Amino acid sequence: MIKILKYGEVANADIFARAVPTVNVADIVSEIIATVRRDGDSALYAYCKKFDHADLTSLQVTEEEIEEAMNEVPARFIEVLEKAARNIRKFHERQVRNSFIINDEDGIVMGQKIIPVDRAGLYVPGGTAAYPSTVLMDSIPAKIAGCREVVIVTPPNAQGKVNPVILAAAKIAGVDKIFKVGGAQAIAALAYGTESIPRVDKIVGPGNAFVAEAKKQVYGQVSIDMIAGPSEILIVADGASNPAYAAADLLSQAEHDKMASAVLVTDSMDLAVAVQAELEKQIPLLERAEIARASIDNNGKIIVADNLELVVDIANEIAPEHLELCVDQPFDWLDKIRHAGSVFMGRNCPEALGDYLAGPNHTLPTSGTAHFSSPLSVDDFVKKTQYTYFTRDALKRVADDVAYFAKAEGLTAHAKSAVIRTEEDAQ
Question: What is the pTM for the complete model shown?
Answer without folding.
Answer: 0.92
